[in-house]
């Protein structure tokens, strides 16, 4: 009989909401035994758009690119430390590209059956809704999606060790 969850992917973007989602995913992994992958996507599409709009010069693009790559490492290391505290093995992956396309590819390539994401930001306009890559990925994936809310409850659950 197959397990309820075979493999979990948590999307990390550096926001507090994504760290809360990581804590919840770690608890889920701990309680189900499902392997856990943390994914950070370096949004090269947004970076290219900034250069095309003349907001960044090409030289600035390289410096900014190095900064966001360092952010990816920092946040994935944070999630690894959280998992280690709970005795959970976690695979961390950093990819470059369009956020929604890289999430879809990671799910397909790794046989993911649950995507865990942090609470989505409030939509202020139809344009925001169209350009929210995380929401776009959530709507297009072929697996279940869990949106983690209630940061205080998740933090209490994570710190208590009760799953």
Structure in words:
The protein is α/β, with parallel strands linked by helices and 163 residues long. The chain has one domain: 3-Layer(aba) Sandwich (Rossmann fold), CATH 3.40.50. It contains seven helices and five strands, in the order E-H-E-H-H-E-H-E-H-H-E-H. It has a five-stranded parallel β-sheet with strand order 3-2-1-4-5, sandwiched between helices. The protein is globular and about 50 Å long.
Number of separate strands: 5
Helix share, percent:
55-70%
Which spans of ≥5 residues are poorly predicted at pLDDT below 50? 125-130
User: Averaging pLDDT over every residue, what do you get?
Assistant: 85
* Distance from first to last alpha carbon: 23 Å
- The oligomeric state is single chain
Strand order of the largest sheet: 3-2-1-4-5
Order of helices and strands: EHEHHEHEHHEH
The biggest sheet amounts to: 5 strands, parallel
Number of helical regions: 7
Shape: globular
Q: In angstroms, what is the radius of gyration?
A: 16 Å
- Output the structural class: alpha/beta
Under the CATH scheme, which architecture would be assigned?
A: 3-Layer(aba) Sandwich
Q: What top-tier CATH class fits best?
A: Alpha Beta
CATH superfamily: HUPs
**What number of domains?**
1
The CATH topology comes to Rossmann fold
Proportion of beta-strand residues? 15-25%
Compact summary:
By secondary structure, this protein is α/β, with parallel strands linked by helices.
Name its key features.
Rossmann fold, 163 residues, alpha/beta, single chain, 7 helices, 5 strands
